[in-house]
């Protein structure tokens, strides 16, 4: 086992070998016996465990009624809203937070379509002058190709 892995085990599980992963416990103990750096890291982890052991955590049962009420409100708010099978089938979610991006995109594309189409109509009308156009009819040309 490498020293770096031993230090990672100490950081994750603390100095008590009973909490270390079983597959690496024997190698870690052997490294702690054979390496001065590993022994120092183990001693430092033991000091940290002792310091954390003396730390008093405030009792949460004093506020248990407030916490229970808050938890109940969170669970109630997170409950599933009833939806019809049609929305489930097509994957639609009609809540405003989910609907507005689609509606905005549809409105934008509709406006863009009208602008492009109207611009094309205006250009076609401007370039078409009825007095300059010549009407060509198939009746003016004989089928055999002779001129009249």
Condensed summary:
Helix content is 64%, strand content 0%. By secondary structure, it is an all-alpha fold.
List keywords for this structure.
148 residues, mainly alpha, 6 helices, elongated
Main sheet: strands, sense, barrel:
none
What is the general shape? Answer: elongated
Q: Determine the mean pLDDT.
A: 78
Radius of gyration: 40 Å
How many helical stretches?
6
How far the N terminus sits from the C terminus, by CA atoms, comes to 107 Å
Description:
It is a single chain. By secondary structure, the protein is an all-alpha fold. The chain has a domain at 3-53. The protein contains 6 helices and no strands. It has helices spanning 3-13, 22-34, 36-53, 64-77, 85-90, 96-127. Helix 1 packs parallel to helix 3 and helix 2 (22-34) crosses helix 3 (36-53). The protein is elongated, with a radius of gyration of 40 Å. The model has no long low-confidence stretch (mean pLDDT 78).
Task: Draw up the topology in text.
Blueprint: H1 3-13, H2 22-34, H3 36-53, H4 64-77, H5 85-90, H6 96-127
């Amino acid at each position: 086992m490498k020293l770096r892995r031993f230090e990672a085990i100490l950081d994750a599980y603390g100095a008590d070998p009973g909490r270390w992963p079983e597959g690496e416990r024997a190698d870690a103990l052997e490294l702690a016996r054979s390496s001065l750096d590993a022994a120092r890291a183990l001693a430092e982890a033991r000091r940290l465990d002792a310091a954390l052991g003396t730390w008093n955590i405030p009792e949460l049962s004093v506020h248990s009624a407030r916490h229970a009420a808050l938890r109940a409100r969170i669970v109630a708010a997170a409950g599933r809203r009833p939806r019809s099978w049609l929305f489930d089938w097509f994957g639609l979610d009609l809540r405003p937070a989910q609907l507005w991006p689609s509606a905005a995109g549809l409105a934008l594309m509709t406006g863009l379509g009208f602008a492009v189409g109207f611009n094309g109509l205006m250009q076609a009308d401007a370039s078409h002058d009825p007095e300059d156009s010549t009407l060509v009819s198939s009746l003016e040309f004989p089928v055999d190709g002779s001129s009249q």
